[in-house]
Design a protein that fits this description.
elongated, five-stranded parallel sheet, alpha/beta, Rossmann fold
Length: about 300
């Protein structure tokens, strides 16, 4: 699977199905596998092993299965976590994906090809997370355009495999320069951070928010169908209206938006998808400028 020795940390009870499969997969000593049998030992071993992937048997729960997931994810939030679960615990395994795990495998299905696929995805996730942390806007902390494209391409590929859909909202902060001219750069930066918070508060945790340019932003709705775009835009408009009521004496934030949807049947790259929605936003800006010019001539 790879030429370097992977650092894997596994917490598993009896009979050791995952450990046996991992030993078989890495018979050529391509990995350094550390196996423990309790969650307490796992937590104490994380700093010592510095694992690249953590694998957790969900049956090693404390009071409730999610307790172990919470503790492991809180202790090592940057390390991909893969969960093993009995088939009867499938619903709980699915729930772990919203609590910090990136994937799960049902017991009885732990074989070499499955483990190889899951571990490869975990390592790609880790590399991508490290990369995109470097591709963030220094003012708002949101993804930059390069970071957004990196994340977007990945979700595009996942959607092609799964048959999922995505929606995209592009946003223009229309009066950013006017705020900067009237109140100074500090106030403008404060307004940018306000908008970043509004955008993040108007979508799900799984969605991706970015600052694409000086006054341009975007929200990518992952695994979302076309009608979700209208819901997300309406939520943003509501949050903005409430926020603007308290923005005194600096004045309101004015936004213009455009939306688009994507499915695998579209056969468009993520770059083409983004360019199409941005083009619509630019056209609306030109139309509004033309309207203002016509009104000025009257």
């Amino acid at each position: 699977m790879t030429q370097r020795r992977l650092r894997l940390l596994l917490a598993e009870g009896s009979p050791g199905e995952a450990a046996a499969a991992l030993h078989a997969l890495y018979a050529g000593n391509d990995a350094r596998l550390t196996v423990v049998s309790t969650v307490a030992t796992l937590l104490a071993t994380i700093r010592v092993v510095d694992p690249e992937v953590i694998l957790l048997d969900l049956s090693l729960n404390l009071r409730e299965p999610m307790d172990a997931v919470h503790l492991v994810h809180r202790t090592a939030p940057g390390v991909p976590l893969v969960v093993f679960a009995d088939p009867a615990e499938k619903n709980q395994a699915i729930r772990t994906l919203t609590e910090g795990a990136i994937d799960f495998i049902l017991k009885g299905q732990v074989d070499g090809p499955t483990l190889e696929r899951v571990l490869r995805a975990a390592l790609e996730h880790n590399t991508l997370a490290g990369l995109t942390d470097l591709l963030r806007d220094p003012v708002t902390g949101l993804y930059s355009r390069d970071g957004f494209l990196t994340i977007g391409r990945r979700h595009d590929q996942e959607a092609v495999r799964s048959g999922g859909a995505m929606v995209l909202i592009c946003v223009l902060f229309e009066n950013l320069q006017a705020l900067r001219d009237a109140f100074g750069p500090g106030t403008a930066d404060h307004a940018l951070n306000d908008l970043a918070a509004l955008l993040k508060g108007s979508c799900r945790r799984s969605d991706v928010v970015a600052r694409l340019g000086e006054a341009q932003f975007a929200v990518l709705g992952v695994d979302a169908i076309a009608p979700s775009a209208a819901v997300m835009r309406n939520r943003l408009e509501h949050h903005l209206a409430v926020h603007n009521q308290t923005r005194s004496p600096c004045g309101p934030i004015h936004l213009r938006t455009s939306v688009g949807s994507w499915t695998p049947q579209n056969q468009r790259t993520f770059e083409e998808f983004l360019d199409g929605v941005e083009s619509s936003l630019r056209m609306r800006k030109v139309e509004k400028m033309s309207e203002k010019a016509s009104q000025a001539q009257l």
